[in-house]
């Protein structure tokens, strides 16, 4: 009897072990999906197209699940109403270790345990500083857009890829505004090389040849950005110099300060150009949206002509532009894909807004991917794949900000600017910049698709998780300066 008992117990134990190996899921944990490849789990699929992979997992498991990715357990949370339970709990969820891993890999930068500098830098994008940055930006945009004809006359048609055109103009104007150095062209060229390899660099999947190119490019950029090449005296502190001051106070040495400038270049310049591309691309391929924006602009110029009391006020800042704002929100909903990650630093019970509770293990990663939910979630936005320029407009032409998931009103119904420690401090500046750029382009240029039947190029799937998406290929346009009326 004893023997049978031992055998049965052993069998039971083996069965337990096998099922534990296969599922390794403990009580009250989110559904676990290990994938078929031991240790690697779903790493390959995740790398290739994170949006497609996570959408498949969402379909299978719902709004919370754990996947194995290269030895790590990653819990993916796709219920925006529960995001704050992670974002606001800084005792259980750490941000700094994960940030350091990425900055080390991509920028060869060690920031140690310093807290994010965003709160201290945010003041440079507010109030008076914001106005002067915006007016400086406008001047640079105007100069670049209207006074650069590459040898041709302004009224001659020119052909270009819209992505290259937008990225180069916004990058150069942004660089001149924030870095105040006159090597914008060289920095832009080198930056695009680096940016093209950045996702592979972050994932450690560069070939030997690419790895060489990325390292050279990074070195060259450090040199081009380095402060000893700065113009001007020490009394006029640029935004970039102020950033270095903060790092200095934190005890970061000169070498790391130099490297940190590339991180700053990337965070401040990698999003606006691609956004301008998608925005103009959507307008050019959706004539009713283009007409609505142009009609709003015509309204503004009438206002400007008749506003004798405040002729100095920029009509863009003085008047609301609900149509443009909705077009921008809709563009960002479809093309902004930040990934917000935290490390679980102590055992945690995560409360979901629907009352369910899940155990999270210490050492696991929690990942929110707002692109899938809220942004592309059919429970929140009808026909999420299509561009509807008035999705964020109410009938009275005011901003629409009431959206629901499972009957509960959402705080986060689109999250292009991130949240918590991962939020954009340049948001107001970016919005003004994009408005300036689009309005300048539409009022001063004749801009049209080179092939009237052309469609927007597809998204480059390797960029999910890295901020603004970029296209695979480009959209050819032709443009010329409008003749003065
Ligand atoms: C449409 C354009 C933009 C979008 C969608 C965007 C989005 C974001 C997001 C999602 C983050 C958080 C990234 C993360 O921590 O993972 C971020 C950070 C940041 N953004 Fe933006 N951004 C845009 C334009 C700009 C511009 C034009 C500037 C400034 C010139 C800027 C300045 C910054 C800075 C400094 C941070 C880092 C804050 C920190 O230190 O933690 N952004 N942005």
TrEMBL record:
Q: Where in the cell is it found?
A: Endoplasmic reticulum membrane
Reply yes or no: does the keyword Transmembrane helix apply: yes
**Where, in this chain's numbering, is substrate bound?**
105, 111, 271
Q: Name one GO cellular component term.
A: endoplasmic reticulum membrane
- Tell me the InterPro entries matching this sequence: Cyt_P450 (IPR001128), Cyt_P450_CYP7A1-type (IPR024204), Cyt_P450_E_grp-IV (IPR002403), Cyt_P450_sf (IPR036396)
Per its record, the protein catalyses:
a hydroperoxyeicosatetraenoate = an oxoeicosatetraenoate + H2O; prostaglandin H2 = prostaglandin I2
Its Enzyme Commission number(s) read: 4.2.1.152, 5.3.99.4
Record's signal peptide:
none
Report any Pfam family annotated for this entry.
Answer: p450
Membrane topology category:
Single-pass membrane protein
Keyword set for this entry? Endoplasmic reticulum, Fatty acid biosynthesis, Fatty acid metabolism, Heme, Iron, Isomerase, Lipid biosynthesis, Lipid metabolism, Lyase, Membrane, Metal-binding, Prostaglandin biosynthesis, Prostaglandin metabolism, Transmembrane, Transmembrane helix
- Coiled coil, from the record: none
Q: Name one GO biological process term.
A: prostaglandin biosynthetic process
| Binding locations of heme | 424
Please give the cofactor(s) recorded in the UniProt entry for this protein.
heme
Show the GO MF annotations: heme binding; hydroperoxy icosatetraenoate dehydratase activity; iron ion binding; monooxygenase activity; oxidoreductase activity, acting on paired donors, with incorporation or reduction of molecular oxygen; prostaglandin-I synthase activity
Q: What is its main location?
A: endoplasmic reticulum
Q: Briefly, what is this protein's role?
A: Catalyzes the biosynthesis and metabolism of eicosanoids. Catalyzes the isomerization of prostaglandin H2 to prostacyclin (= prostaglandin I2), a potent mediator of vasodilation and inhibitor of platelet aggregation. Additionally, displays dehydratase activity, toward hydroperoxyeicosatetraenoates (HPETEs), especially toward (15S)-hydroperoxy-(5Z,8Z,11Z,13E)-eicosatetraenoate (15(S)-HPETE).
**Entry's family note:** Belongs to the cytochrome P450 family.
Protein name listed in UniProt? Prostacyclin synthase
Which organism does this sequence originate in? Amphilophus citrinellus
């Amino acid at each position: 009897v004893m023997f049978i008992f031992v055998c049965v117990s052993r069998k039971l134990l083996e069965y337990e072990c096998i099922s534990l190996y296969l599922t390794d899921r403990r009580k009250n944990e989110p559904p676990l999906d290990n994938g078929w490849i031991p240790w690697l789990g779903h790493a390959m699929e995740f790398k290739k197209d994170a949006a497609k992979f996570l959408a498949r997992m969402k379909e299978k498991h719902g709004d919370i699940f754990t996947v194995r990715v290269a030895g790590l357990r990653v819990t993916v949370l796709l219920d925006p109403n529960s995001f704050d339970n992670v974002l606001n709990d800084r005792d259980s969820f750490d941000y700094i270790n994960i940030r350091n891993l990425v900055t080390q890999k991509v920028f060869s930068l060690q920031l140690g345990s310093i807290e994010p500098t965003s709160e201290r830098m945010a003041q440079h994008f507010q109030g008076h500083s914001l106005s002067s940055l915006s007016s400086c930006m406008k001047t640079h945009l105007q100069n670049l857009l209207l006074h650069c004809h590459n040898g041709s006359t302004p009224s001659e048609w020119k052909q270009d890829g819209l992505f290259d055109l937008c990225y180069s103009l916004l990058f150069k104007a942004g660089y001149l505004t924030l870095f105040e150095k006159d090597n914008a062209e060289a920095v832009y060229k080198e930056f695009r090389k680096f940016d093209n390899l950045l996702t592979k660099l972050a994932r450690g999947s560069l070939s030997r040849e690419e790895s060489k190119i990325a390292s050279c490019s990074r070195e060259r950029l450090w040199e081009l950005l380095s402060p000893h090449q700065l113009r001007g005296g020490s009394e006029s502190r640029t935004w970039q110099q102020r950033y270095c001051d903060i790092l200095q106070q934190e005890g970061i040495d000169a070498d790391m300060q130099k490297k940190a400038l590339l991180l700053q270049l990337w965070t401040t310049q990698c999003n606006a150009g691609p956004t301008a591309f998608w925005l103009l691309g959507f307008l050019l391929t959706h004539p009713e949206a283009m007409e609505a924006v142009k009609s709003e602009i015509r309204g503004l110029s009438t206002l400007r002509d008749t506003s004798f009391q405040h002729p100095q006020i920029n009509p863009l800042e003085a008047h609301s532009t609900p149509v443009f704002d909705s077009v921008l929100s809709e563009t960002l909903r479809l093309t902004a894909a930040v990934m917000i990650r935290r490390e679980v630093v102590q055992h945690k019970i995560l409360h979901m807004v629907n009352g369910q509770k899940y155990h999270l293990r210490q050492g696991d990663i929690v990942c929110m991917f707002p692109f899938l939910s809220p942004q592309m979630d059919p429970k929140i936005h009808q026909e999420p794949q299509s561009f509807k320029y008035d999705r964020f407009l109410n009938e009275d032409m005011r901003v629409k900000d009431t959206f629901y998931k499972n009957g509960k009103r959402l705080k986060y119904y689109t999250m292009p600017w991130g949240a918590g420690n991962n939020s954009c401090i340049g948001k107001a500046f970016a919005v003004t910049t994009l408005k300036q750029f689009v309005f300048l382009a539409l009022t001063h240029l004749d801009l049209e698709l080179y092939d009237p039947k052309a469609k927007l190029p597809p998204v480059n799937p390797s960029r999910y998780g890295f901020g603004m998406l970029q296209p695979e290929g480009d959209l050819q346009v032709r443009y010329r300066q409008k003749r003065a009326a």
